[in-house]
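Problem: given the chain below (285 residues), write out its structure.
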Amino acid sequence: MYSTLSPGAIGVRTANLREAIAAAKIGGFRGVEFNPVEVADLISRHGADYVNGIFNDADIRPAGFGLPTNWRGDDAAWNSSLLELPRLAEAAKAIDGTRTMTWILPCSDVRPFEENRQFHVERFKPIAAVLSDHGCSLGLEFIGPKTLRESQKYSFIYTMAGMLEMGRDIGPNVGLLLDCWHWHTSGGTIADLLSLKPAEVVYVHVNDAPLGVGMDEYVDNVRGLPGETGVIDIAGFLRSLQTIGYDGPVTPEPFKNELNELPSDVARLSVVGESMSKIFQQAGL
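Solution.
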């Protein structure tokens, strides 16, 4: 496992790949998320060796990318974005950044559970097939907090087991974007983690939960830095992933307003980078 920067997740603004890599270096991260459109365009103009050289020269790994397909849109938007996916997946493969991910709401005002599940399977099957053709895997993130899953008319998948089951119906290259926040708020256990196979974990997010909040009262965008409060057993979480053989990115997603109040991106990168070093040390990694 290795620490990875998603700049926007901690309020850091980067205009391009070189700036994102530079930010990762400042924070002591070993990997960085990338924009597949930018990477595909760079490869088209300069070749894959050029882009790989940018990463290699900085000793930063291309960790993964947010799923670029508009699967939530209408049929026209979805189909249009699907046509672009082979080029982007091929570019990701060329730099060995073959992990992509997206999140799925645990509720809907429009579709009852079974209808919603069928919608997701139908939308993701062709996406997964294209990704598979180019050696890419897809991580689906379940969302845990009860306050969110009860915010709309119909409930939907909000647990690790439920998302894995739907992933198996979509394709063999589909697994989890596993966020310790959602693992915690959905009632997940260490035993659940230890039951996973390495291929079932595509990507990992880390953070912490606020003190003094009941399990049913967590609000999704009110979190803490990884290891900040100790409410989430982050050491047990990471050690369990190591035990099952996960060797991919670990990315902070703290959703902490105080980060925006810091004076600079360098300060944000320093604070978050230190929190990542702390949790890796706590886990003995």
